[in-house]
Write a structure and sequence with these properties.
By secondary structure, the chain is α/β, with parallel strands linked by helices. The chain has 10 helices and 8 strands. The structure holds zinc ion.
Amino acid sequence: MKRTLIDTHAHMLNASYKEELTNRIEQAQKEVKLLLNISWDIKTSYEVISLNKKYPFMKPVVGIHPSHAHEDFDKINELDSLITKDVLAVGEIGLDYYHSVEHVELQKKVFEQQIQIAQKHNLPIIVHTRNSLEDAWVIIKKHPEQKFLLHSWSGNEELTKEYLTHKNIYFSFTGVLTFKNAEETRKAFLIIPKERILSETDCPWLAPVPHRGKENIPQYVSYVNEKMAELWNISIAEADKLLENNFTTFFNEKK
Ligand SMILES: [Zn+2]
C-alpha cells in the first residue's frame, strides 16, 4: 500500500536545489501527498505562491524569517497584501539568536507584526526559534487563541511542558529525531501528546539517518515518521495516519 506522507516544512526555493529544482519537485510529487513550501522573505513569499499554481501539492507559507527581519522589516504591509486564499500559513517567523543577536528588538517587533497579520487572515503560524525559546514564549503566550506550529522543536522537557500549557500549540520534528545524540529531543517528543505532533524535513538541511549529512529532500519525511512509529510503539501505517489527521486538524482541513 502506498504511504500517505506530508512534509510540513520544506524549502524548495533553497539555492542548493537550483538546477535540479524541477527534478526534485517531480520526484517529491511521486511520494509526498503534500508539502509546505516555506519562504523566508518577501521575494520568496511571492515565489512560493506562484510555484503553487504550477504544483498544487506544494502549499505556500509566507513570511519573514527572523534572520531576514533587518532586511524586510519595512515590507510588512506588502506581506499583508500578497496573501492569497491559497496560502496555508504565515511562516517561518520567530526569533533566531543563533545567527545574530544584533537585531533582537527588531526581530521581536517583526515577529509581533506578523502575528497580527496571521490573525487578520485567520491563518496558523509556523514558528522558528533558535537559542530563543524563552523570549519566543513571552510573545507566544500573549496569543492564547492563535494556532502555532513550533517547527524543528528543540526544547528540553521543562520548556516543552511550559509550551504545552498553550492549548493551540503543535510541535513538529525533523530528522534530528533519528540522530544518535538526540536523546533530549526524543525525551521531549515523548512527553507531548501524539495528537499535537507533526513531521517535517526542513530540507535541504537535517537529512535523517541513513542520509545524515547529505542533501535532504521532502520524501525523506518517511524516515521521520518511521522513527515516530518506533518511539510511539505503533505501526508505520498508524503513525502515517495519525500524522495526516493531525495535519488536517491543525490546518483546519484547508488543503
Ligand atoms: Zn525552515
